[in-house]
Amino acid sequence: MKFFAFIVVLFTGALLIYGTVDMPNWGDPNSPPNSHVSPRYIEKTLEETATPNAVTSVLADYRGYDTLGETTVIFTAGVVCIMLLRRVK
Amino acid sequence: MIWQLDIVFLILVVISAIAAISVKDLLSSAILLGAYSFLMCLLWSEMGAVDVAFTEAAVGAGISTAFFIGFIYQTTRRTKD
Amino acid sequence: MKERYPDVTIETICRLLIPPIQLFALYVIAHGHYSPGGGFQGGCILGASFIMMFIAYDIGEVKRKMQEKLNTILCSTGVLIFAGIGLICLILGANYLDYGILHNILPVHQAKARALGTLGIEIGVGIAVTSVMVSIFLNIATAGEHEGEP
């Protein structure tokens, strides 16, 4: 059984390494993520949101709905932990 | 990005990951996972993604190590297999 | 939880270390605009400092200072601050979570209003993450049987 699991892990790792062959180089300025929407954020962040840290402005302002979902997931995890485990004597 | 530093960090990441799943003591395993997270944090910050590195250091190396140590109180300290 | 052995080294180290950790966590939340950081990271560090307190001292003693009811209310208050700021923007006539419209009620111009809206939701995320982390740790590490009032 352990040998079979090792074979599965090796196969999946080889598949993932094969998948990285087609990816763009690290820091390539012409790759798709770096050429459509990133330059607009980098150029307009300071004048539109007055926030020097572009990561914070993207996370909390331009993509604020995403962060709301993330906070809701954490809140649900806490509530489910209380509901399943807490026992008051 | 310095490739010599990168290779050293990647080798240490692989060593700590293999040690974390092969050690018999669960407390050592939790501490080794914390070391793995901290090495990943060094790797992120060396690649320039400082915000991701901060999250990795706060969540991976801080909170989840504390959680694992708390969970080991509820179970046996030695693994069965 | 297993029975507790008081240890003077751990208690002294925690008493010395916890205030700087909490101060640094508040700095990370408030300074997320200018340096790496933000609500999630700062909330995790603040929650870790409270978890350190629960590990080092007696659980019932710490729970008297930090009540479970208040902690559970703070969980939902964080999410409510986040969604409430979005709702204020909706009431003022803009899209949901579009903080630029907040310059109608705040004495600043539009770009600064967006920065202040971002700071508000970072504080909400920080409160929610802190209390959720403390609550998860307390419930799992004691299997839900920590004494004290509910």
- Tally of distinct domains of chain C: 1
List the helices and strands of chain C in order. HHHHH
- What ranges of chain C have pLDDT less than 50 throughout 5 or more consecutive residues? none
Structural class of chain A: mainly alpha
Q: What does the main sheet of chain C amount to?
A: none
So what's the oligomer here?
heterotrimer
Residue share in helix of chain C:
55-70%
The low-confidence runs of chain A, each spanning 5 or more residues with pLDDT under 50, are: none
Sum up the overall morphology of chain C in one term. Answer: elongated
Note the main sheet of chain A. Answer: none
Number of strands of chain C: 0
Portion of residues within helices of chain A:
over 70%
Mean pLDDT of chain C: 88
Overall 3D shape of chain A? flat
How many separate domains of chain A? 2
Helix and strand element order of chain A: HHHHH
Helix count of chain C, per DSSP? 5
Radius of gyration of CA atoms of chain C, rounded to a whole number: 19 Å
Structure notes:
The complex is a heterotrimer of chains A (89), B (81) and C (150). Chain A is mainly α. Chain A contains five helices and no strands. By secondary structure, chain B is mainly alpha-helical. Chain B has one domain (3-72). Chain B has helices spanning 3-22, 26-47, 50-72. Chain C has five helices and no strands. The mean pLDDT of chain C is 88. With 150 residues, chain C is mostly helical. Chain C has one domain (8-141). Chain C has helices spanning 8-30, 39-56, 59-65, 68-91, 110-141. Helix content of chain C is 69%, strand content 0%. The chains are: A mainly alpha (89), B mainly alpha (81), C mainly alpha (150). Chains in contact: A-B, A-C, B-C. The A-C interface holds A 47-53, 55-57, 59-61, 64-65, 67-68, 70-72, 74-75, 77-79, 81-82, 85-89 and C 32-36, 38-40, 72, 75-76, 78-79, 82-83, 86, 96-97, 99, 111-112, 114-115, 117-118, 121-122, 124-125, 128-129, 131-132, 135-136, 139-140, 143-145, 147, 150.
